[in-house]
Amino acid sequence: MSVPRPAAPAPARHRTVVIADDSAVVRGLFARWLGEAGNAYVVAVAGDGETALAHAARFKPDVLILDLDMPGLDAASALPRILRESPQTGVLLAATLNEHNTRLALECMTKGAMDVVSKPPSRAGMTLSLDFRSEFLLKLGNIAQPGPAPERSPDPAQGQAGLRALAWATPRYLLIGASMGGPRAVARVLFDIGDALADITTLVVQHMPPLFTASFAEQVTSQVGAPAREPCDGERLARGVVYIAPGGRHLGIDRRLGHLVARVDDGPPVNFCRPAVDVLFNDAARHLGAAALGLVLTGMGSDGTEGAAALRQAGAAVIAQDEQSSTIWGMPGSVVRARHASVVTPLDEIGGAIRALLRGGSPA
Predict the structure, then answer these.
(1) Which helix (H) or strand (E) segment is 215 a member of?
(2) What positions constitute the catalytic site (predicted)?
(3) Which of 15, 109, 212, 268 is the most exposed place for a label (fewest CB within 10 A)?
(4) Which fold has domain 157-358?
(5) Which of 332, 268, 269, 278 is nearest to 300 (CA)?
(6) How confident is the model at residue 156 (pLDDT cuts 50, 70, 90)?
(7) Do the domains 15-144 and 157-358 sit in the same CATH topology, yes or no?
(8) Of 173, 303, 181, 164, the residue nearest 238 (C-alpha)
(9) Is the peptide bond before 275 cis (omega within 30 degrees of 0)?
(10) What residue ranges do the domains of the chain occupy?
(11) What predicted TM-score, i.e. pTM, was given to this entire model?
(12) Any idea which residues carry the catalytic annotation?
């Protein structure tokens, strides 16, 4: 899985963690890694969902590491109750990914889990894989220690006032980039746009491993009602379709035989990511210009910043999700600090505003 790798700020304090996994070996391994990292304190461990729920209610931890496959109360059932008992707890899912677990993880992320880390299929693989350990600690660190709020750029218009200023331009292509916390945010935006999606071509880069993106496309189709799928390289782009970048492959835009088509390739990672938002945004700036509308949602790292600059230079607008509504304000925050955001606005206002633009109205 491609993971953006920002420099993590030094924690102001040790963060509290609950580890919920039915394997004592895994619980011990995670606890040892956190102890060696020195920036988290494991306050409790659990071997089943009911115990995880009890520990969340008692300790109200900063982070709960939640195994998808546990006896008794499964993760999808436990998660909403955990977040009701401890709303401030960030939940990191851990699972060996297969088709079933991928669907379950996506369901959990729409219910409030922040991200998922994919366990190697064997215990030996977990113990020996430095990549897995690094990914685990990086994601947990980004959940547990967002750090001080970055300095904001004073330039972008804020909220609905800024969205109203975009009403002069009616986009024909919507380009969305997201990472940690993205599945929930992307689904929310698309759901709020609703049947106006039929008026636009939508392309989404969500940082996900391969198994996830096909399931995510199915989930979008089910929840939003618009057809969503992973495109093939050279597929002609159609209005009314939501194209999801295939996990582990870049999604861009090309012009072939006079038609705009999807460009899908295995080029090198950009910003440590494949797929990368910058690849899509840069292609859109080149081929779409002012007909594009860029949207940068929650996620760690800075992917999308360079591409947002290209979109603005080509005459397109760029919306950035605001800090308060973001799971991680890395990607949108980077765009804002670089002064490439036309608008900075809360998640719950974005979809309705885009819907109004597409239907020729002004955001309320």
Answers:
(1) helix 210-224
(2) 179, 207, 303
(3) 268
(4) Rossmann fold (3.40.50)
(5) 332
(6) low
(7) yes
(8) 173
(9) yes
(10) 15-144, 157-358
(11) 0.85
(12) 179, 207, 303
Distance of CA 251 to the CA centre of its chain: 16
The 10 Å Cβ neighbour count of residue 57 is 13
- In this structure, are residues 193 and 354 in contact, taking their beta carbons and an 8 Å threshold? yes
Pairing between strand 317-321 and 292-296? parallel
What is the C-alpha to C-alpha distance for residues 215 and 110, in angstroms, rounded to an integer? 13
Structural contact between residues 296 and 304, judged by C-beta atoms closer than 8 angstroms = yes
Nearest one of 101, 81, 100 to 91, comparing CA atoms: 81
Contacts with 197 (C-beta within 8 Å, 6 or more apart), sequence order? 190, 224, 226, 240, 242
CA 340 distance to own-chain centroid: 20
Residue 241's pLDDT is: 98
Residue 194: exposure state from Cβ atoms within 10 A (0-12, 13-18, ≥19): middle
SS3 state of residue 334: helix
Point out the least confidently predicted range of 79-88, 98-107, 251-260.
98-107
